[in-house]
Design goal:
single chain, mainly alpha, 0% strand
Length: 235
């Protein structure tokens, strides 16, 4: 079935092909996600948070390696520097985020309504584009992505259990237990953990970050399922 190309290069719309593919659907959804009414994070904002996370990981490893691998004085210097970088990175990133998102928090109801209006327009356009593909292609890809989403949900349940429903709460508990007796200026005591404890903390943070990545992937699968289901409903 030959189909006309929708959109043009000047509009930034991906060309529509004769066969429905997930890569085409990804481009459409990604374009939809990138056209929000709110400003996008800048490169400085993104790298500020990344630098803070990297410094936190290096500081934990340096503290865990003391005194068996690193002398206590060197470990204290490294952890102090990493802590300063971490605080600075998160502070800069937080200020840039607050500057970028202040309007939606100053007028949350109006901002949310405007955002839904924009999303609805993109949603309706994408549904119309999907309906131009043959019905058997839409049904086949809906069955596949539904099975993929169900399998991912089950695997995430085995790995993370109920933690995926608690959000950042487990990490806040771990930070409280680590810093509950800490006093300002005691930089070495802030990271007073042994090698095993440091590795466990690093593994927990890594698993938590990977969990968010998997949740983002599952959310994208749910978006595909919802779009394909809507495209199969009678007009």
């Amino acid at each position: 079935m030959d189909m006309q190309v929708r959109g043009g290069a000047e509009e930034g719309v991906p060309a529509q092909t004769s066969e429905l593919t997930y890569s085409w659907l990804y481009q459409q959804v990604q374009m939809w996600a990138n056209q929000g009414i709110h400003p996008k994070p800048s490169r400085v904002e993104k790298w500020s948070f990344r630098l803070g996370l990297l410094a936190a990981g290096v500081g934990l490893l340096a503290a865990a390696a003391s005194p068996s691998v690193l002398p206590p004085v060197q470990a204290a210097v490294i952890t102090s520097i990493c802590l300063l970088i971490e605080i600075g990175g998160f502070l800069v990133g937080g200020l840039l985020t607050a500057k970028r998102e202040w309007r939606q928090y100053a007028k949350p109801r109006l901002s949310h309504a405007e955002e839904m209006d924009g999303e609805f327009d993109h949603w309706r356009t994408l549904i119309e584009s999907l309906r131009e593909f043959p019905r058997n292609q839409r049904e086949e890809r809906l069955r596949f992505v539904t099975a993929l989403r169900q399998g991912m949900t089950e695997r995430m349940g085995l790995m993370y259990g109920g933690l995926q429903k608690l959000g950042p709460f487990p990490v806040l508990i771990a930070l409280y237990l680590q810093f509950r007796n800490w006093e300002w200026g005691d930089w070495a005591g802030a990271f007073d953990v042994n090698l095993v404890g440091g590795l466990l903390i690093f593994a927990m943070v890594l698993m938590y970050a990977m969990g968010w990545v998997l949740m983002a992937a599952r959310t994208r699968l749910e978006t595909y399922v919802t779009l394909l289901e809507a495209a199969l409903r009678p007009e």
